[in-house]
Structure formats: C-alpha cells, structure tokens
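task queued by scheduler; priority normal; single chain, no ligands, no partner chains; default sampling; output format set to structure tokens
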Amino acid sequence: MSNKFYIPKLAVFGVGLIGGSLAIALKNAGAVGQVIGVGRSLENLNKALALGVIDEVQSDPLTATKDADLIVLATPVNTVIRMLEKIEPALDYRKIVTDVGSVKGEIAQRAKSILGDKISQFIPGHPIAGKEKSGVTAAAGNLFENHKVVLTPLSSSDRHAYAQVERMWLTVGALVTEMDVLSHDRVLSITSHLPHLLSYTMMNFLSNSQEKDKCYEMAAGGFYDFTRTASSDPEMWRDISLMNRQQLLRHLGEFQSELSGIAELIESGDEQAIETLFASAKKARSLVSDRRSSD
C-alpha cells in the first residue's frame, strides 16, 4: 500500500455528520484499518458502532490518542481547544492531529500555546460540506465528494503531517485547497457564517410576525431554500458566531449598510438603480454557480 493512503488506526473525536461521514468514506476506500470513536454521548457512539461507522468506543481521550496514528477532532469549535488540552500528553512526533472546525484563527492561536513543540503535528482543516441535519445517522460516505476542504497550515507545520492530511481528504473525493487562517475566517464569515445568521434571523422575523400563521402556509420555494440552514444545529452555530465574532460583526455591519441602501432606493422609487443592483447580483450569482460547476 505504499502508493495508497492508509492509516492503521484513526481516532475520530465527535462521530456526527462530519466525523461519521469521514470514517465511512475512508472505510469504503479501504484506507483505514480501525476507527476509534470518541464522544460525549455514549448512545451516539454505540449507534455508530452498531452501524459499522466505528470499530471501537473509547471514552478516554488519552487512551484513544495513544492508540491512534491520526486523530481527527470533529467536535464543535469551542471544544476543539479543550480536546487539544486533553490529548497533548499522549501526542508524539509519529501522531498527526487535524480538526474540521469552521473557524480557524482562534483555534490555531490557542493550539500553539497548548501544544508547544508538538504544534508541528497539528494541521488545521475545514471541509466545506454538510447538511442541516446532524448526528451519525445523517453521515454519508459521499459527503465530501467534489466538495472543497480548506487546509490552513501554520508556519511550523510538518510537511509530512500536512501531506498525510491532504491525502486523507483526497482519498474521500474532496477538492483540497490551502489558505492562511485569517483569510479563511474572513472569507467564511461572508460565505457561510453570515448566511446562517441571516437564515436564523429571517425565521425569527417570520415567527414574530402577526401574520405568521399565513406566512407558514404561504412560504414559497425561494423562502424555503433561503432559510434551509436555519434547520442547522443551534449550539454549533452559536459557538461559530462567537468564535468568529470580529469578522462576523464587521461583515454584518457592511451588510446592514447594503440593506439601508436598498431601502433608500425603494423609498425613492429609483427603478433604474434597483434594476441595476438586481442585475449585478444576478451576474455575481452566475459566477458562483459557474465556479461550483467547474470544480
């Protein structure tokens, strides 16, 4: 198997949608020997074991880390740092650690102080794939196929460790790209974090309306598509919003200015300016669609 990615023992912390899907995909590819599942819910882990997503349930993070060659932290972003603190004593130069968090800056910064010299073995990552559903029952072996995975290596990152994490994601069909942590957090605040915030806000706006019952009945396809992400895990998106608050608040303020500008155009009845604005948005949407199709 010298020319093929293969990891003898993989430890997945957080066997939910992302962690579970990665385990399934690696098993389907014959790229993993044993998968150790670690998590806070014994019920979920036993379900993952029964489904064949993992091969072993381990409640002790240190034991799981000692037994593993590669550790994937697929827990919520606010617990990734705590997990690094717990597993640090069991890490050595032979073990590789990566995460799947949607926010990279704070995790990378805290990881440096926690891991010390072992920081070279930590390769931060973020698969841009998912569903509004969560838990191991939502996991799917094809979740990452033709979806981007962003790796955000640090200046101290070990080249071999990076190559192994990259090969892992390529093995499950992902499109791997590289960004620095600050660029990642700026871009994802616009393309992912802010849209989720708007989706949640739109649903709360509807539910607080005096016409909410009629609105529920008359919700059109566009509204349904726009608010799809409001079905996502509230706890997870609370943590993402707070961890990337600096970038999110900046872009939220800019977006509020955009809304104010549209309101002024509608109030003034400026037909040409409104049509020009909508045409520009349509063109930008086509560019997004074309880029996704070309991947």
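post-processing summary
- The domain at 184-294 is CATH 1.10.3660.10 (6-phosphogluconate dehydrogenase C-terminal fold).
- The chain has two domains: 7-179, 184-294.
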